[in-house]
Amino acid sequence: MISPALLERVACPVCLESAGCAECSAPAGHDACREGYARRVRCACGGPDKVRLEVRGETLACSCCGASYALRRDEGYADLGPVRPVGEVTQYADHEFQERLGTTDAEPVLSARVKADMMRRMLAPGAGEVVLDLGCGAGKLALYAGRDGARAAGVDVAPFFLARAAAAVDLVRGDLRRLPFRKGAFPRAYSLDVLEHLDGPGVLEVLVEARRAVGPGGRLFVYTHAMESSALARFQRAVNRLARRLGQAGLIDYEREALRKSDHVNAIRSHEHFEALCAEAGLEVAERRYYNVVIKAVVEDLGLRLYEQARRKRARRTEAKGGRGGPESPPRSIASANSFRASVGGLGGPESPPSLIASANSFRASVKTGRLALAAARALTWLLKLDVVLFGGVRTGPFFGLLRPGGSLTERARIHSARAGGSGGAHRGPPGLTERARIHSARAGR
Ligand SMILES: [Zn+2]
Ligand SMILES: [Zn+2]
Ligand SMILES: [Zn+2]
Q: Do residues 335 and 365 touch, judged by C-beta distance below 8 A?
């Protein structure tokens, strides 16, 4: 939906106001946006605000660049993507469409729920607050995040939203690297399974833009992964290898998982690298928990897939004997792709396994079995939460991070010089980035 409150928060994705500190202010006019955008928006002061948009009928107009953006009220979203594309274009937008065809609006369960609940615990949005879902996908998690009195708004590069999300959640099509929101528009924001799809400069741009959107006192929750590993992760990989072999033998469907991962760029090399990117974006990591998926690997990646495959086989046998169902029931070939996941209405979050493709159709057919499956899924979700409880302190690649703006100029300079003094081995970053961070804080300290 497009609420009046959303219209108060939106801004031109590419235009910066002329006001700023000595470093980032500029004479009025769009030339300054075009030429100095990256430098100005990244300014240590937090950067200038973005230019407000004026509602003109069914469009939003920018007085700086002259662009007009569509309000697609029927489809439930404002189209605020930059007129000219920025950076690498993810292929995700393409296969997303296929995936989202099957996404349902049922509550998230299993690992998607574990992530959603970690977000709610660490970000702790208050009643009445509007939280921003960065890379909201179909809007499934935004719907769930809006429980308990908080509300969610979502932004995504691909506008394939669930009908219920389009009706109940403020939605924007936009590029996370050019967020179309005013400064501090959403004091709390989260991004789940998004950063791994961006290249290094892209991750930095998203963090810079997110810092602006949450404002000086805001908080940002992320779930993503660094290219690190642990002894526990080796166990998980062994389970995955087994799953892949079973997939090759046709015993389980492994192909979709492989397809989903094919779009991962994985630019974050280590946790120090991530901290350096955060520092460069004016953010710091306030809290971090790791996600060693030991129980998930066995229960969700292996157990449930075997179960699904068994169900598919049984359904195919029934289909061979039977024919099609009545007009109200979906063709059995589709219902046969029905699975434990589909029967609870699609378990994944926006990133989630494309095993949901057929679930929309099979959903109605499985309402009855769905209740039982939902109860089972909730119980398994509880089990999966043990991964965080038991292994959340064991350093590994995937992690939940709570980020906050890295303080004032002097604060950032102080942190940096303490680090430069050799006290913080934990903050070692790759040389390139550390170098850039140093240049930046030297500039900030002037
Ligand atoms: Zn500035
Ligand atoms: Zn402009
Ligand atoms: Zn503009």
A: yes
